[in-house]
Write a structure and sequence with these properties.
- The complex is a heterodimer of chains A (about 300) and B (about 280).
- Chain A has twelve helices and no strands.
- Chain A has about 300 residues and is an all-alpha fold.
- Chain A has one domain: MetI-like fold.
- In chain A, helix 4 packs across helix 7, helix 5 crosses helix 7 and helix 5 runs parallel beside helix 10.
- Chain B is mainly α.
- Chain B has one domain: MetI-like fold.
- At the A-B interface, helix 1, helix 4, helix 5, helix 6 and helix 7 of A face helix 1, helix 3, helix 4, helix 5 and helix 6 of B.
C-alpha cells in the first residue's frame, strides 16, 4: 500500500519536473516553428538558390553554378551601375530626411498648445500605404493637371509644365521627394524622444553662463543627439537600400534603368523569372550592407563614442 | 512683446509643418470630389484635365464609380482578411513566445531569443525568391494563408519584440499569486498576463495590421487573382492610369488611407513607442 503510493508520488513529481522543464519550449515552439519556416529556412534557401541558374519556369532544371552569378554581376552593367544608383538613392533620401526631421523635432520639443495634434499629423505620412504616397505624388507632379507644375509655372520657376516622371533626373527627384515626405516622421519622432530626455538643468546652467540659443544647441543639444543621428543614418541607409515599393510603383525602375537600385533590380529579375540571379543580387546586396555596417559601427565606436 | 513674437513664430512653424504633411491629402481629396471633365470634341489633341483647385460642382460620383467600375470592395475585403489574419497570428504566437522568454529560464534561452529577433533584420528582398518558391511548392501561392504566412516574416518577430518589452514591465507577484491558487501557466497567461498587457497587445496588433495593410511587394508577388490581391496592388494600377479616371483613383487612395489613418489617430499614444521600435526593418 505504502510502496504503491510512494511510487505514484515520485511518478507525479517526475512528470511535473519533466513538464516543468519542457514547458518553456512549449510556449516558444509555435513562433519558433513559424520563424523557422518563413524566415530562417528561406534565408538558407536564398543563399543556396543564389548559387544556381534557377528559373522560376523550370525550377527542376536548375544547375549549381557556384559563384558563377558573381562573374555574371561583374559583367553586368545594370548591376554595376546599380551600386552607384543605390548609393545615390540612399544618400539623397536619408540626408534629406535628416534635414527635414531635425528642425521638426526641435520645433515639436517646444511646449505650445496643440503640440499633440501637430505631432500626430507629422506621423501621418509615415503610417499610410506607400502605394497611396506614390499615387499622391504622381498625381501632384503630373505634366497636365499636376498642382506642382502649375505652382512652379505661376511662380515663374518653370516656363511650361514638365513631365517629371518621363525623364531620368526628374523621376529620381520625384521619388526621392515622395520617399522623404513619407519617411521623415520616423526620424523626427525618434529625435524628439531624445530631445525630451535631455535634462533641462543643462540648458539653465548654460543660460546662467551666458550662452545663447546657438551655443546651447551646439554644445548641449547636438552632442546629445549625435549618437542617435548616426544610428538613424545607418538604419535608414540599410532600409532604403532594400526599398522597392515606391520606386517600383512610381517609376517601374525607369525611364530606362535610371531608377534601378539593386533591390529594384532584384525585384525586376524575379518578374523575369530569373530567380537564381535575382537571389544572388539580393544576397550580395545584403552582404555589402552587413560589411559596411560593421565598418561603420566600428568607426563610430572608435571615434564618436570614446 | 517677446511673447507675441514667440507665439507668431510658433503659429507659423506649426502651420508650415501641418501644411507640409497634410497638403497632399487635401489635394487628393479635392481630386476625389472633382467630376470628370467632359472631353472637348473640338480640341481632341489637348488633355481633358487641367489643374483644378476646387471643383465648381463637388460630387461623390467618383466614390460610387470606384465600387461600380473597379472591384474595389473585393480588394478592400482581401486587405482586411490578410491584415487581420496576420495580426491575429502574430498576436497569439508572439504572446505565447514572449511569455515563455520573459517568465522562464531554460537551456538555450539566449541563443533562441537572439535568433528569433535577428530574423527581423533579414531584408525582405532576400526573402522574396525563397518565399515565392516555397509558397508555390506547397500550393499556398495566391491564397490568404500563404500571404498571411509571408507577411508574418515581418510582423511576427516585431510583435514578439514588443511583447517581450511589455511583459517584462509587468509585476511578477500577481502571476505567482495565481499559480499558488492553482492556475496553470497557460491559465496564468490568459487570465492574468494578457489582460494586464492589453495596451501592449493593442499596440503590437495594430502595428502588425498597419504593416500588412500597407505592404505592396509581398501582395504583388504572391498573388495572381482578384480574389486575393490587396489594395496596394490595385493602387499601383491606378498610378499607371488604369482606369484612366483620376477622380476614381483618388477616391480609392482616400478609402485605402482611411482605415490605417483612423486606427493610428485613435491609438497614437500607444503606437508611437512601437513605431520607433520598428525602425530596424530593412
Amino acid at each position: 500500500m505504502i510502496a504503491v503510493s510512494v511510487t505514484r508520488i515520485t511518478n507525479g513529481a517526475a512528470r511535473r519536473r519533466i513538464c516543468g522543464r519542457s514547458l518553456p519550449y512549449a510556449f516558444i515552439a509555435p513562433i519558433g516553428v513559424l520563424l523557422l519556416t518563413v524566415s530562417i529556412y528561406p534565408v538558407m534557401y536564398a543563399i543556396w538558390i543564389s548559387m544556381t541558374d534557377a528559373s522560376l519556369l523550370q525550377l527542376a532544371r536548375a544547375r549549381f553554378v557556384g559563384l558563377g552569378n558573381l562573374l555574371r554581376m561583374i559583367d553586368d552593367d545594370v548591376f554595376l551601375q546599380g551600386l552607384w544608383r543605390t548609393a545615390r538613392w540612399d544618400a539623397a533620401v536619408v540626408l534629406s530626411e535628416l534635414a527635414i526631421a531635425l528642425p521638426i523635432a526641435l520645433f515639436l520639443n517646444l511646449s505650445f498648445r496643440g503640440r499633440g495634434f501637430v505631432r500626430a499629423v507629422v506621423l501621418l505620412p509615415y503610417v499610410i500605404p506607400p502605394a497611396v504616397t506614390a499615387l499622391l505624388w504622381v498625381y501632384m507632379v503630373d505634366g497636365h493637371f499636376g498642382v506642382i507644375n502649375d505652382l512652379l509655372v505661376r511662380l515663374h520657376i518653370l516656363r511650361h509644365p514638365v513631365s517629371w516622371l518621363g525623364e531620368s533626373g526628374g523621376s529620381f527627384a520625384v521619388v526621392t521627394v515622395a520617399m522623404v515626405w513619407a519617411g521623415q516622421p520616423l526620424m523626427a519622432i525618434i529625435l524628439l524622444a531624445v530631445l525630451q530626455s535631455i535634462p533641462r538643468e543643462l540648458y539653465e546652467a548654460a543660460r546662467v553662463d551666458g550662452a545663447g540659443a546657438w551655443h546651447s544647441f551646439r554644445l548641449i543639444t547636438l552632442p546629445h543627439l549625435m549618437p542617435t543621428i548616426l544610428f538613424l543614418l545607418l538604419l535608414r541607409t540599410i532600409w532604403m537600400s532594400n526599398y522597392v515599393d515606391m520606386i517600383y510603383i512610381m517609376t517601374q525602375g525607369g525611364p530606362g534603368f535610371s531608377n534601378y537600385t539593386e533591390a529594384v533590380y532584384s525585384f525586376m529579375l524575379i518578374q523575369q523569372f530569373d530567380i537564381g540571379y535575382a537571389s544572388a543580387v539580393a544576397v550580395v546586396l545584403a552582404v555589402i550592407l552587413t560589411v559596411a555596417s560593421i565598418f561603420y559601427i566600428r568607426h563610430l565606436v572608435r571615434t564618436v563614442l570614446t | 512683446m517677446a511673447r507675441v513674437v514667440r507665439r507668431v513664430w510658433i503659429a507659423a512653424g506649426a502651420t508650415a509643418i501641418v501644411a507640409f504633411c497634410l497638403a497632399p491629402f487635401l489635394w487628393i481629396f479635392i481630386a476625389s470630389i472633382t467630376p470628370e471633365a467632359v472631353p472637348d470634341a473640338s480640341k481632341p489633341w489637348s488633355s481633358e484635365r487641367a489643374v483644378q483647385y476646387f471643383p465648381a460642382e463637388p460630387t461623390l460620383r467618383n466614390y460610387v464609380d470606384l465600387f461600380k467600375d473597379v472591384p474595389f470592395a473585393l480588394y478592400f475585403r482581401n486587405s482586411t482578411i490578410v491584415a487581420t489574419g496576420t495580426m491575429l497570428l502574430g498576436l497569439v504566437l508572439a504572446s505565447l513566445g514572449a511569455y515563455g522568454f520573459v517568465r522562464f529560464r531554460f537551456v538555450g534561452r539566449g541563443p533562441l531569443l537572439t535568433a528569433m529577433l535577428l530574423t527581423y533584420m533579414i531584408p525582405s528582398v532576400v526573402l522574396l525568391v525563397p518565399l515565392l518558391v516555397i509558397l508555390r511548392r506547397i500550393g499556398l501561392i495566391d491564397t490568404f494563408p500563404g500571404l498571411i504566412l509571408a507577411e508574418s516574416t515581418n510582423t511576427a518577430p516585431f510583435v514578439l519584440l514588443l511583447m517581450i518589452n511589455y511583459f517584462s514591465t509587468l509585476p511578477r507577484e500577481l502571476e505567482e499569486a495565481a499559480q499558488v491558487d492553482g492556475c496553470s501557466p497557460l491559465g496564468t497567461l490568459v487570465r492574468i498576463v494578457i489582460p494586464l498587457a492589453l495596451p501592449g497587445l493593442v499596440a503590437g496588433g495594430l502595428l502588425a495590421f498597419i504593416m500588412t495593410w500597407n505592404n505592396f511587394v509581398f501582395a504583388y508577388l504572391f498573388t495572381n487573382t482578384d480574389n486575393v490581391k490587396t489594395l496596394p496592388v490595385i493602387l499601383r494600377l491606378f498610378v499607371l492610369g488604369e482606369p484612366a479616371v483620376w477622380g476614381v483613383s483618388a477616391a480609392g487612395a482616400i478609402l485605402t488611407t482611411v482605415p490605417v489613418a483612423l486606427l493610428f489617430l485613435l491609438f497614437q499614444r500607444m503606437l508611437i513607442g512601437g513605431l520607433s521600435a520598428g525602425a530596424v526593418k530593412g
